[in-house]
Design brief:
This protein has about 350 residues and is mostly helical. It is built from ten helices and no strands. It is elongated, with a radius of gyration of 24 Å.
Length: about 350
């Protein structure tokens, strides 16, 4: 009898931490807590509160991006005016303008790349804490084997992809930007093919990794068709337009998030979803503002008939697009991983 009581006591001690863990999500980092919505019962309302809080904070970034744009347009205008001078003066002026524009762009791009890299690391770190909670919640509902297998796969994939992005693809973006400046200064444009090959390689790796991961999540059977068709279509269109490079893949994957959000009943899962979005949204929109302004600047420089300046600005906007794609990809990976557990644990 004493052995049975002892066994019950041991099992109770083992179960209590798992149960507590299944209902308590890790706290969002201190610097992001003021972004958390007050109402988390409804996904739409919570997202609206997130946007309402983050949009006013973008004013300094918009002003800074417009200052950079004005400087680039002024340099392009000076280069176009000096075209009528002698060949030597025109060529020297063009090289000087390209060098100045490259310096301004590199400083701005470096700041945005750092923001993107930090966001990738923060989302990955939070996901490392959140996924065991979701796995325990799923196991508590009887999906012990499935949750263990799903956790093992998602944890490894998230860790590998996040580290690969920050340690390989982000340095590749820096190299692409450096090649863009060197190509703009060079007379023979011998670096153009290398630059294009590097950019296409980054895009291919990113798309391939996302496609494999989303396909793996699809095999788990999490994708559902319970989402309202109009809402899903609107969301897909918005994501495809907002996220360069991988917008199409993420738009298709958004069905997973939306369909599972409809059946979420786990307080820990709801908190985790909003915590990921609170970490992600402000940095993403900050980079996105600079990306859009660079795109507009590229178009204006093109109208000034300054092909070299326009191409250089275009290369840097593509570099910002790659950082946007990486940041959005990591966020969606964590969201998809979370809702995979929620569908069974809710």
């Amino acid at each position: 009898m004493s052995k049975i009581l002892f066994a019950i006591l041991v099992l109770t001690l083992l179960v209590l931490p798992a149960e507590a863990l299944s209902i308590t999500a890790p706290q969002v980092p201190q610097e992001n807590r003021d972004m958390m919505p007050e109402h988390t019962e409804n996904l739409g309302q919570g997202l609206w509160e997130l946007l309402r809080d983050v949009l006013p904070r973008l004013r300094p970034d918009l002003a800074e991006a417009l200052k950079v744009s004005a400087a680039l347009i002024a340099a392009a205008f000076i280069a176009s005016v000096l075209k009528s001078a002698s060949d030597t003066i025109a060529h020297t002026a063009k090289l000087a303008c390209i060098a100045c524009i490259g310096s301004v762009l590199f400083l701005s791009a470096n700041s945005m790349v750092r923001v993107g890299t930090k966001t990738i690391e923060e989302i990955s770190a939070y996901g490392t804490l959140l996924l065991p909670v979701m796995a325990s919640a799923a196991a508590a509902q009887g999906r012990v084997t499935a949750s263990a297998a799903l956790y093992a796969g998602t944890a490894v994939c998230n860790a590998v992809i996040s580290r690969f992005l920050s340690r390989v693809l982000v340095p590749a973006v820096y190299l692409f930007l450096a090649l863009a400046v060197a190509d703009g200064i060079g007379a023979e444009h011998n670096l153009k093919k290398i630059k294009k090959l590097l950019k296409n390689s980054v895009i291919w790796i990113l798309k391939t990794a996302l496609t494999i991961y989303v396909s793996y999540m699809g095999i788990t059977g999490i994708v559902s068709s319970t989402t309202d068709a109009a809402v899903l279509k609107t969301t897909r269109t918005a994501i495809s337009a907002a996220v360069p490079v991988v917008g199409g893949i993420l738009a298709n994957a958004s069905e997973t998030v939306l369909s599972s959000a409809a059946v979420v009943k786990s307080a820990a899962g709801i908190y985790g979803i909003f915590a990921i979005l609170a970490i992600f949204l402000a940095p993403f929109l900050k980079i996105w503002v600079h990306y859009v302004i660079l795109r507009l600047t590229e178009a204006i420089c093109g109208m000034l008939d300054e092909k070299g300046v326009s191409e250089l600005v275009g290369d840097f906007s593509e570099g910002m697009g790659l950082i946007l794609a990486m940041t959005a990809s990591v966020c969606f990976l964590q969201l998809i991983s979370t809702v995979c557990f929620l569908k069974g644990a809710g």
